[in-house]
Every structure is written in structure tokens, then in C-alpha cells.
Design brief:
This protein has four helices and eight strands; from the N terminus they run βααβββαβαβββ. By secondary structure, it is an alpha+beta fold. It has a single domain, classed as Aminopeptidase (3-Layer(aba) Sandwich). The structure holds coenzyme A.
Amino acid sequence: MLIRNETAADIPSIGRLISEALLLLPQSTGTEAGIVERLRTDGPLTLSLVAEDKGEVVGYLATSPARVGTQGGWVLIGPLVVLPSRHGQGIGTALMKEAINRLRSTFRGAALVGDPGYCSRFGFRAFAGLGVADCPPEVVQALPFDGSEPRGELIHHRAFGLNQQC
Ligand SMILES: CC(C)(COP(=O)(O)OP(=O)(O)OC[C@H]1O[C@@H](n2cnc3c(N)ncnc32)[C@H](O)[C@@H]1OP(=O)(O)O)[C@@H](O)C(=O)NCCC(=O)NCCS
């Protein structure tokens, strides 16, 4: 399996993968593929990583710049998706580790709205005062790279629309 940057040829597969993988999630809004399209078009898709196996896109991770309150320098990870038939094979872990390695030198820290059970494997945790309106606080998680204490609302790029990840 190879983790690499997306190419133009991957774009249709990425859209299908996001829609298929997130169908399983009750909190999915069904808009996530469109969010990635908007991030790609508007320019702030800082990372767009695919996991490729035997020519097939089996996993995907996107990142975009974010703020915590008024503090810039944060990066938002998401969506992170793996083809349902390939869950449990280390693909999500490989994508997440590659993303963290690439982001560490550029950003203050990474943040996400996601499953704490999974994301804690990579060092993400909730912080008092870190949140997203209408989201349970435990799903809003951060991994500071420089010891920063994230405190305030996690502000996504406008491509997400208000609270669309909850
Ligand atoms: C979450 C997701 C990306 C994990 O991808 P994956 O390739 O299956 O994950 P990995 O193979 O790297 O890791 C699997 C391990 O994580 C655990 N795991 C997976 N989802 C978990 C969750 N929600 N809570 C706790 N543990 C979880 C598995 O039990 C497995 O544990 P093991 O290594 O002890 O056997 C994938 O299930 C997915 O696409 N889910 C739908 C989208 C989603 O929830 N994205 C948000 C992620 S924050």
C-alpha cells in the first residue's frame, strides 16, 4: 500500500470513497464529499492524501487550515475515511501518521471532530474550553505540536459550513 498526494485522476474515486465510507456514520451529513470539492476549488486543501493499493484508492485524508478562537496556525484533519471492506488493516493509521509527520513542522497543532476512541491512538485529546457549537465536547480533539493549549471554538474553513461535521 502506498500513501501519496492525490492526483487529478483520483478525484472521482475520492468522492465515491467519502460518500461510501461515511454512509456508515450516523452523524454524517452526506455533504462531506462536497466539502472536499469546495476545499480543493478554493485552495485551502493543505493535504489531500490517498492510500492506494493495487491501483485502487482505499483510503483518504484531507486537511485544511483552522483557527482555535482567534489563534491561527492550527490545521484541521478531516475527513479521514477508509473503504469499509478494508477496515482494520492499518490504512487509517498509515494515513494519520503520514499526515501528522507532514504537518508537524508547519502548524501549531492539529485538531479534528472525530471518534475519541480512534483518534486518541494518535495522541489527540479533548481540552477544556475547546469546542465546536452543538458538538459534544469529547469529539472535538486536538494534538498540539508546540505545547499550545487550544482554548476556544475550533473554527473550520468556510467550505465546511456551520457545524457541518457534527
Ligand atoms: C475510523 C477509520 C478511518 C479507521 O480506519 P481503519 O483503516 O479501519 O483503521 P486502522 O486499521 O488503522 O485501525 C484499526 C484499529 O482501530 C480501531 N478502531 C477503529 N475505529 C474505532 C473507533 N471508532 N473507536 C475505537 N477504535 C477504533 C479498530 O478496532 C482497530 O483496533 P486494533 O488495531 O486494536 O485491532 C475507518 O473505520 C472509517 O473510515 N470509518 C468511517 C469514517 C470515520 O469514522 N472517520 C473519522 C475517524 S476520526
